[in-house]
Design a protein that fits this description.
The protein has 15 helices and 8 strands. The protein is α/β, with parallel strands linked by helices and 410 residues long. The chain has one domain: Phosphoenolpyruvate-binding domains (TIM Barrel, Alpha-Beta Barrel). 40% of the residues are buried.
Length: 410
């Protein structure tokens, strides 16, 4: 049989879809190849020093030494496979000694508290200079930057001035660190994101930075970001409103829950309002190259061993819950949360590595050997799973190549 349509029909359809093709390529470029940190650590600006990362790592190792039970008991406490915990603990200790923090925010917002204008001016410049010293000393994490005050009318001028002075402090002794990123909190309107885009452009001009060098994240902490007055999803418009500068969306557990009227005792990453907000974030960011991050728990591991272990059990469960739902990053607020951040994360990747490796090997070969016929999109997700595990240190290149990871069932 012969086809009855000639090339003119394809040309007609191509012409009709040219605009849609261009929009799709611009608005949905796909996932970025860049490493995504497993967490963001918030350090109040008045406590930040160039040795902050080293200090957090030492405190995390001390918490493990002081409060962790034996391996089997720790596995039961955290509801993790004993074999995975035993294999992960040496990796976690190495991580805490070598790179305890992957992403750090110097906090000039909620973590700072009351501060006069002159004092915050001095603090912004000093904190920026401390980042510069950390870079020079080799103690700067892969990603770092400030969280400034929001662009609401009452705090807008302060946020802009703090960012200006902080940036000046960082640049006074050398170039901007590769992973520099700014966090914009309590966004309520697309216009605030557009204004932040413009501010970054003006700062690039003022400090002779290449166009597009400054990037920022938006914190999803208000109901208006999820649902606008006209019933549309504001966050979907925000993702595309920053001229490619937007690097991430971060869920703010407690501000968002409080704004939705949730009583303090029930505000949690496990509350249904949190699940709904994050699902909308996930949909809005899918395919755009903008990463998503979960929020925090305010139950921190302090006090006697019983209190620390109870907080660890909660934290590990929440980290695992986020990972299972496709949120590979979260917030940590205390050094003693780092052990469970990495233990739960490493256990997640190590437990899934054997199956992911086998399915990747099967695909393109004898597909379906393991009773699973994967689609190309799932294969891409499997490869991303392996890459994330390698990036965070859950397993090594040698382990992956040797196929030494065994399948573990929760």
């Amino acid at each position: 049989m012969k086809a009855r349509l000639d090339h003119t029909v394809l040309a007609e359809v191509d012409g009709m879809l040219a605009g849609a093709d261009a929009d799709a390529a611009r608005m949905y470029p796909g996932d970025q190849d860049a490493r995504q940190p497993v967490h963001t650590v918030y350090v109040p600006a008045h406590t930040y020093t160039a040795d902050a990362v080293r200090s957090w790592g030492a405190a995390a190792l001390a918490a493990l030494a002081d409060h962790a039970p034996g391996t089997d008991e720790l596995a039961r406490l955290l509801d993790l496979p004993p074999a995975v915990v035993a294999a992960s603990l040496p990796l976690v200790r190495d991580k805490l000694a070598r790179e305890p923090i992957e992403d750090l925010r110097v906090d000039f917002e909620d973590g700072l508290g009351p501060c006069s204008g002159d004092d915050e001016d001095a603090l912004a410049a000093a904190a920026g200079a401390a980042v510069r010293r950390a870079v020079e000393q080799g103690t700067c994490p892969p990603s770092i930057g400030p969280r400034v005050k929001s662009f609401e009318a009452a705090t807008r001028a302060r946020g802009i001035r703090t960012l200006d002075l902080f940036l000046g402090g960082v640049l006074a002794g050398g170039p901007l660190p590769d992973g520099f990123v700014v966090t914009l909190p309590k966004v309520t309107a697309v216009a605030q994101v557009e204004a932040m885009d413009r501010l970054c452009e003006r700062l690039e001009d003022a400090y002779a930075l290449p166009r597009g060098r400054l990037r920022f994240e938006v914190q999803v902490e208000t109901p208006q970001v999820i649902l606008a007055a006209d019933g549309t999803a504001t966050v979907a418009r925000i993702v595309h409103a920053a001229s490619g500068r937007l690097s991430g969306l971060h869920y703010g557990t407690y501000d968002y829950s409080a704004a939705c009227g949730i009583a303090a005792g029930y505000q949690s990453l496990e509350h249904p309002v949190a699940d709904h907000a994050r699902a909308v974030m996930q949909l809005a960011a899918a395919g755009t190259g903008v990463s998503i991050s979960d929020g925090s728990t305010n139950v921190v591991p302090v006090g006697d061993s019983a209190a620390v272990r109870s907080a660890w059990a909660l934290h590990a469960r929440l980290v695992r819950r986020s990972l299972e739902r496709g949120f590979y990053q979260g917030w940590d607020l205390h050094p003693a949360q780092l052990p469970t951040r990495y233990l739960a994360t490493y256990a997640f990747f190590r437990a899934g590595m054997a199956d992911a490796s086998a399915r990747l090997r099967d695909y393109g070969g004898e597909g379906g050997v393991r009773g699973v016929q994967d689609e190309p999109a799932t294969v891409h997700a499997l490869a991303g799973f392996v890459r994330r595990g390698l990036d965070c240190g859950a397993f090594t290149e040698d382990e992956l190549e040797a196929g030494s990871l065994r399948e573990v069932v929760w």
